[in-house]
């Protein structure tokens, strides 16, 4: 395949290895910056600088087994998505994070990447004290750091974000300082509490999107229902005359789902949109 030839010939591959909970994700951007690497693979995600560009977080999985499968890219669908991103963004180099040499090798093989240029161990960039502190945080509080801002991972989590963490680092190439924003989350299977947002917030988001949509005359009614799986949305719309009803409502449905998940971190399980009327405007 053309895509595999591009990957094999172009991308330099690096690995950052350390046992689970030792602070790899926390230090990933520093390690990448020192080697001028702009792309990171961590727990099923392909990250460019601080933006998720492909993949689905393994920490979203309901079980540890599913988490491992996601992290290793054993599903061909997940592999294809990452490869398409490689083809689109043409990364010169990639840093793969893993808990062992064996793990990063499996990820590299599954994604069809080149042999490693270098394998960096967590012990070479963190002190024993820092590693032990990271282990205690993971064991006691069940927290995990992903090297992207909170806003970037909200679409992947339904109430599992704890708080954003902004870190000022002075160590880097030529000792240049940089700011790396990271997000602390708990995996689905270890989440310890509840996360709730008022239905009014969702309604206001939908009303705002309705005001921005040129085919919507007004949002007539909105009903929000929440379950353990996510939330169900029912919207009644009065449309302006002259628009393709099916196409407009299909696009509007996708936009509502995307914006609610991006802005609130809640999963949208289903959306039903009904055109309750058509308004003749002066235009």
Protein architecture, described:
This protein is of the alpha/beta class. 37% of the residues lie in helices and 30% in strands. The chain has nine helices and twelve strands. The chain has helices at residues 2-10, 24-34, 64-72, 76-89, 101-110, 128-141, 150-153, 199-212, 245-264, and strands at 12-17, 39-42, 45-48, 51-55, 93-98, 116-121, 144-146, 161-169, 178-185, 216-226, 231-240, 268-279. Helix 1 packs across helix 4 (76-89) and helix 8 (199-212) packs across helix 9 (245-264). The model is unreliable at 149-195 (pLDDT under 50).
Mean pLDDT: 76
In whole angstroms, how far apart are the ends?
Answer: 52 Å
Outline the low-pLDDT stretches.
149-195
Going across the biggest sheet, name each strand in turn. Answer: 4-3-2-5-1-6
Largest sheet at a glance? Answer: 6 strands, mixed
List the helices and strands and how they pair.
Elements: H1 2-10, E1 12-17, H2 24-34, E2 39-42, E3 45-48, E4 51-55, H3 64-72, H4 76-89, E5 93-98, H5 101-110, E6 116-121, H6 128-141, E7 144-146, H7 150-153, E8 161-169, E9 178-185, H8 199-212, E10 216-226, E11 231-240, H9 245-264, E12 268-279
Parallel strand pairs: 1-5, 1-6, 2-5, 11-12
Antiparallel strand pairs: 2-3, 3-4, 7-9, 8-9, 10-11
Properties at a glance:
283 residues; alpha/beta; Alpha-Beta Plaits; 2 domains
Provide a compact summary of the structure:
With 283 residues, this protein is α/β, with parallel strands linked by helices.
């Amino acid at each position: 395949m053309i895509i595999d030839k591009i990957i094999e010939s172009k991308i330099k591959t690096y690995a950052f290895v350390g046992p689970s909970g030792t602070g790899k994700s926390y230090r990933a951007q520093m390690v990448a910056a020192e080697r001028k690497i702009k792309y990171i693979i961590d727990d099923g995600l392909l990250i460019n600088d601080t933006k998720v560009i492909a993949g689905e977080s393994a920490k979203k999985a309901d079980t540890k087994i599913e988490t491992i499968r996601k992290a290793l890219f054993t599903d061909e669908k997940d592999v294809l998505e990452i490869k398409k991103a490689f083809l689109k963004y043409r990364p010169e180099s990639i840093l793969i994070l893993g808990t062992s040499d064996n793990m990063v090798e499996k990820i590299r093989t599954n994604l069809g990447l080149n042999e490693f240029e270098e394998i960096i161990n967590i012990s070479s960039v963190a002190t024993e004290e820092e590693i032990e502190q990271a282990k205690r945080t993971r064991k006691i509080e069940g927290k995990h750091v992903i090297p992207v801002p909170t806003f970037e991972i909200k679409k992947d989590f339904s109430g599992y974000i704890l708080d954003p963490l902004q870190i000022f680092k002075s160590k880097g190439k030529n000792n240049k300082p940089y700011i790396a924003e990271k997000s602390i989350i708990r995996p689905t299977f270890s989440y310890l509490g509840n996360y709730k947002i008022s239905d009014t917030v969702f309604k206001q988001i939908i009303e705002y999107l309705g005001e921005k949509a040129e085919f919507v005359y007004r949002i007539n009614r909105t009903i929000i229902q929440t379950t353990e799986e996510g939330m169900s949305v029912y919207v009644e719309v009065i449309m302006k005359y002259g628009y393709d009803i099916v196409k407009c409502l299909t696009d509007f449905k996708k936009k509502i789902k995307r914006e609610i998940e991006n802005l609130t971190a809640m999963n949208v399980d289903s959306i039903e949109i009904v055109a309750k009327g058509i308004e003749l405007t002066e235009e």
